[in-house]
Amino acid sequence: MTDQSPKTHPVPNDWDRRGLPAWTYHSDAMFELERDHLFLNHWQLACHVNDIPAPGDWRSFDLLGERAVVVRGQDGVVRAFHNLCRHRGARVVDGAAGHCKGAMICPFHGWVYNLDGSLRGAARPETFGDMNRADFGLKPIEMEVWQGFVFLRFLPGSQSSVAECLQPYNADFTDFRAAGVLPAGKPGFWGRTAVNWKSVCDVDNEGYHVALAHPSLQELYGRSYTDIFHENGLFQSNATYGDRPGRTWSVRNYVALSPLQPWLPPRLQRAWNYYGIFPNTVFIFTPESVQFYAELPISQNETVMSSGLYRQPDETRETRVARYLGNRIDRHTSAEDQQLTIWSNESMKSRAFDGFHLSDLEYGVRRHHDKLRALLPVMRLDHPPPEAEVARINAEMLGKP
After folding, report:
1. What would the pLDDT profile of 13-28 be if each residue is shown by its tens digit?
2. CA 240 to each of CA 64, 233, 258, 269, 363: distance values in angstroms, whole numbers, following the listed order
């Protein structure tokens, strides 16, 4: 029988403890390469299917000049399209979320699209000559639904299917009943910060800072926190709580009031687990909630977070209280992380900054950087090349003309 258990990678006894060079965090040319060769051609998390439960419900997702709409059709099928009218390129839906009564109508000139993306009709069709409506439907975007979550990819890329890529997480997502969770608030964007997106990921990819920077998390589960490294750049952190009562208000009450969920296997009944997806997405699973967030770059020095929060359909009042307390702890943690990213990002502009020297507890940072170097080898250069030469040098290092 073939071993189906996820392949993990232990921290080596001897490894290169350096991180990415500072210049890669503040280069406009580097950011342009990341746009086309990292973000647009890798899977991005847009929403959960239960964010759009009824025919005509839609969610938008914008990333680096590309605009998507995810909509549930009259047949119940979820589809993704470029949010671009085929006439003049206007958005066919505007806003973060909404509902269409049977069709999407471009607000510019009134072109009407069916919920399957086909063009129903153009305003004043006689003015367009011999136009075949079948040629002017909304352009589809590559999409995959896995465990209820909707992933998009704007450009073809080297990543395998979402199901194959995230296979190491399949058992836990199934046990947490991820496919059936319901929205527990409006997904949206928050935490717009004047830092490079990699500085945010650098904080996400290690737990070395938890003991000092996150007193609530340390009090809740810091004694059991462990990191696991999988294939495909996946990074998992497991922790369990409940062995101590807690001192701060949120932790003390969360530990005391969080009910055991009998439908969870024992290993997850007192677990706060984090699941990272390369290059920029993190899930947080607790016994009472499911949450995701993703670092979405706006420019080389500005990043915004997209996020979603979900609950189980049969949530009890006790579970709802625990979810409130858990989210309170998480909000404090997010604010603490935001300050850390600012300090880290600004330090790389200093002439005194000599680069990272990583602990074994920060091996996740090195693995993330190695994935970036493999895709964009110009990041291996210790000193910045001229901005106008970054793309050419990267292509040469990839063996391209």
Report:
1. 899 999 999 999 999 9
2. 37, 24, 13, 9, 21
